[in-house]
Amino acid sequence: MTFEPTDDNNSIQLRENDSPMHIRTFRAANLQEALEQIRNQMGAEAAVLHTRQVRDGWMGWLGRTYVEVTAGLRDDEGCINTNLDEPIIDSRAVPEMKSRLLVKDVSSLADLPLPLQAYEMELLSAGVDMDTVDRWLNTTVSFAASMGEAANGPMAARTPWLEHLQRTVLRELRMGSQILTHPGERRVVALVGPTGVGKTTTVAKLAAGFRIEARRRVGLLTIDTFRIAAVQQLKAYAEIMDLPMQVVEKPEDMQQALDRLGDVDLVLIDTAGRSPKSDARIDQLVELLRSAQPDETHLVLNATSSAAATRLAIQGFAPVRPTAAILTKLDEAPSTVGALSTLASSEQYSGIPLSYITNGQQVPDDIAPAEAEMLMSRLLTTKVSVTSLNAA
Hints:
- By secondary structure, the chain is an alpha/beta fold.
- The protein folds into three domains: 1-111, no CATH class; 113-171, no CATH class; 187-377, P-loop containing nucleotide triphosphate hydrolases (Rossmann fold, 3-Layer(aba) Sandwich), CATH 3.40.50.
- It has helices at residues 31-42, 93-103, 106-111, 114-125, 130-146, 161-171, 199-213, 228-241, 254-260, 279-292, 307-316, 337-343, 372-377; strands spanning 2-5, 12-16, 19-28, 47-55, 65-74, 187-192, 218-222, 245-247, 266-270, 296-302, 324-328, 354-358, 367-369.
């Protein structure tokens, strides 16, 4: 496979097995407008190859944000359509397109319905890995076919592609795993995660919910001695809710601290934010948690983080062996697909069950058990109503 720049400025030509493909990049204010340009100027057979967001202005500052979409059109006769308007050709996109085309047959892209091509672009832009994107889209097409719905032709517009995609993603997510407590039986639950994901506030929300609504006796314990402000913040919550609290700095002090909490039904452990790349700090956390022997360990993840950052957090905190995940700051996240793609199950990965979501700073209001409808309605930036997800 080789790239051959043409002499004119109308296209870049890609040759694959001696079959030329004309590559063009379109710039528009939004994704839908870019797709309309592609459809009008290149026709329905054009395949979407790449998308990215760009900003004009000085070094990207103080400028407007655009969407650039790169599309390809196979021409078996080797002819260039000179009637096309002059496109924006961005040479920096060529290596990215080459990398993508080496692992994915371009003709398969053109076979996708236009809405699924748009969703594919958004999934890739959100950092979802290509294997997951392919798996999701193939399953979505198969599901639509099993329902007798058209993938192409005039009836394809009636196919609810996004709802089918939502069902596909939902089937790979594990819901549930909320904290269960029983009077007279102590349960120890630890929250871990990167810096800035909202662990301390989430601990306070959980504590308030179990203390006020479930009428449980709750104790707080923190091993976040790296940030004095975090200890003071949790201590303030403990005083407001009249909860016992202990601070632990070393593993050998853990058991005594747990005993000093008294006869409580639930112990919530707040931990220091750690970089997933810091093996030494993760090892230290493992030692502290081993001394606490938690019944559950919830990995707290920020819904606004990229798929790559979320994936790094999951890999970095794997030695802690999280039993569930909490997704925070949904109110700040334009979509949930980046985080959810890293939690989804696959043939090689069983996924982490989602326990709770948070969508604001209010204690204890802005926390709830993870629910499929909330997560799926925010899967992509495209807004649709979500109906009967669990019935599928």
